[in-house]
Amino acid sequence: MNAEGKSVVGRALLEQEFHHLRSDWWWLLMYGILLVVCGAAAIIFPALTSVAAMVVLGVVLMIAGVATIVQAFWAGKWSGMLGQILMGILYLVVGIMIKDTPIRSALAMTFIIAAFFIVGGGFRIVSSLVVRYPYWGWSLLNGIITFLLGVIIYRHFPQTALWVLGLLVGLEMLFHGWTWIVLSLAIKKLPEKAV
Fold first, then answer.
1. Cβ atoms of residues 59 and 91 within 8 Å
2. Number of structural domains, the chain?
3. Which of 62, 86, 185, 187 has the most CB atoms less than 10 A away?
4. What is the pLDDT of residues 90-106, one digit of tens each?
């Protein structure tokens, strides 16, 4: 199939899969812009981003722990009550540990982020190549960059772990946001009625 034929097929797939979003394309655009802005801020302040991410994660886990414990008692006696209480306590304790030692937590999280980027990038690469949905090339580029960033984090630990974490999260958000911006503008150009 030539380039023109691929373009027609890609346009038809775009219309089929995203036509229902045509009137709300700007929400996707705003989401993409938000990701780009947040990504740029993370790149400008990478160490702050790393520490802030750990503090936020700790607080979120603490809130989840309290909510899980409260929910366990609120639901009353049932076979899963003890498990829910123990899980809530685990959330709470881990959240406190992360919040109280954000720099050490950021160093430990570097390995988790590296694995996440490597696996997530791999998934994006494979899904882009196998499914070939509209504008799949942007997702493929995103996957390749995400995969390579994961490898970089892993290879340069611990010398640059604190600032690399914030920088790479920022770059991932920047490229992911750009993908949504491009897709939203393509959705905006769809005709009023699906063909």
1. no
2. 1
3. 187
4. 999 999 999 999 888 88
Tokens coding 31: 């989401």
Give residue 65's domain range: 19-188
What token pair was written down for 124?
A: 């994006």
Instruction: Please measure the distance between the N-terminal and C-terminal CA atoms of the chain and give it in whole angstroms.
Output: 21
pLDDT score at 195: 44
Q: Does residue 195 lie within any of the structural domains? A: no
- The answer to whether residue 5 sits within a structural domain is no
Nearest to 61 by CA among 100, 91, 93, 101: 91
Rounded Cα distance between 165 and 174, Å, is 14
Using alpha carbons, select from 171, 129, 134 the residue that is nearest to residue 150. 171
Q: Running DSSP on this structure, what letter comes out for residue 157?
A: T
Q: pTM for this one?
A: 0.58
Has residue 74 been placed in a domain? Answer: yes
Q: How far is CA 102 from CA 62, 80, 87, 180, in A?
A: 14, 32, 22, 31
Q: Which among 62, 64, 172 is positioned nearest to 114, based on CA atoms? A: 172
pLDDT at site 152: 85
b/e map of 88-109 (b: 16 or more CB within 10 Å)? beebbebbeebbeebeebbbeb
Q: Is residue 45 part of a domain?
A: yes
**Smallest Cα–Cα separation from 128: which of 113, 112, 146, 152?**
146
* Tokens 């990701």 found at: 35
Tokens of residue 121, six digits = 């990038």
